[in-house]
TrEMBL record:
Lineage: Bacteria, Bacillati, Bacillota, Bacilli, Bacillales
Name of this protein: Daunorubicin ABC transporter ATP-binding protein
Domain ABC transporter residues, every copy: 24-257
PANTHER family: ABC TRANSPORTER ATP-BINDING PROTEIN, ABC-TRANSPORT PROTEIN, ATP-BINDING COMPONENT
Top-rank taxon, per record: Bacteria
Transmembrane segments: none
InterPro entries xref list: AAA+_ATPase, ABC_transporter-like_ATP-bd, ABC_transporter_ATP-binding, P-loop_NTPase
Length: 332
């Protein structure tokens, strides 16, 4: 069953520019110069129930614009959007009862009242029964460890405490679909680990579908098997996270630590091999090839140079994504 079905989705914005000088300002009163920019450009995708999908890209790639169209905040310029069997914009009142949304830089909690009072107000808004609220939220409050925070005003909470409460607030009505837009921005490692653990639990227990946008690649690696990579409003990759590494950069990094100083002239060279020097005795080779190519490289280097240590590392997801944007690669 597809929870999200998007076909040829496009969102355009007008970017106005002002003319210079007094005469230009006067002309702007009657006619304005503008350009039409496509923040999201003809994207299509489907998401199945229970999937955890990482929706990633650079600033301005169109991530938040897509999320706002999927949640009914923005109306698409063209294309079709069906989420939970509904049109998010046209059936908004019924639709919002089926989703939860957390924006890392916006709050849905009331600033000056206690957290538990915000929860009670949201319970009324979503028409959640006392029984359902107690059964579900008891588990959420315990897992996120926010019990001691419930009687405190939101303005008295730290960023990490507030974000855990924001996540709990988004789940009061136990939605089948959860949108998370930069939910761990600015948080310390311990809070991130708690949030990741909790998201895994609700995904396993309730089959909650989760769409996660973030610049923290470790969040994606910890939670998502599937990633959708966006660049200039277009999808350049949609598939398994582990397959991204194979498709984008076929190879591994081999770090050699030598006993003595080594010159580049003494190291093997080939079109599929790239060397980087860390210091006088440490070199890193990026090998575009399979395990046999790595084995041959190590054998050739050891025969010619005394080795202190060798480490083989998979190329990181962050490095892969950096290369995709720098080189403008289209990944299939």
């Amino acid at each position: 069953m597809n929870v999200i079905e998007v076909q040829d989705l496009r969102k355009e914005f007008k970017s106005y520019s002002s003319r210079s000088g007094l005469s230009g300002a006067f002309r702007d009163l009657f006619t304005r110069n503008y350009k039409v920019l496509a923040a999201v450009d003809q994207i299509s995708l489907t998401v199945k129930q229970g999937e955890m999908v990482g929706y990633i890209g650079e600033n301005g790639a169109g991530k938040s614009t897509t999320i706002k169209m999927l949640t009914g905040i923005l109306t698409p310029t063209s294309g079709s959007v069906v989420v939970n069997g509904m049109n998010p914009h046209k059936e908004r009142e019924q639709f919002v009862r089926t989703i939860g949304v957390v924006f890392g830089q916006r709050s849905q909690l009331w600033w000056d009242i206690a957290v538990q009072e915000s929860f009670r107000l949201l319970k009324k808004v979503y028409r959640v029964s006392d029984e359902d609220y107690n059964n579900h939220m008891g588990h959420v409050i315990e897992t996120l460890e926010i019990g001691p925070l419930l009687d405190k005003p939101v303005r008295k909470l730290s960023l990490g405490q507030r974000m855990r409460c924001e996540l709990a607030a988004a789940l009061i009505h136990n939605p089948s679909l959860l949108f998370l837009d930069e939910p761990t921005i600015g948080l310390d490692v311990l809070v991130k680990l708690k949030i990741r653990k909790f998201l895994k639990e609700i995904n396993e227990q309730y089959k909650t579908t989760i769409i996660l946008t973030t610049h923290d690649i470790t969040d994606i690696e910890a939670l998502c098997e599937r990633v959708v990579l966006l660049d200039e409003g277009k999808i350049v990759y949609d598939g398994k996270l582990n397959q991204l590494q194979i498709n984008a950069v076929e190879g591994k990094q081999v770090e050699f630590e030598f006993l003595t100083e080594v010159l580049s002239a003494t190291l093997p060279s080939s079109p599929k091999l790239h060397w980087e020097q860390k210091d006088a005795t440490t070199w890193t080779a990026t090998v575009n090839g399979d395990e046999q190519a790595v084995s041959e490289l190590i054998s050739n280097v050891i025969q010619k140079n005394p080795i202190k240590n060798v480490r083989i590392n998979e190329i990181s997801t962050e490095e892969i994504i950096r290369k995709i944007y720098e080189e403008g690669m289209a990944i299939s």
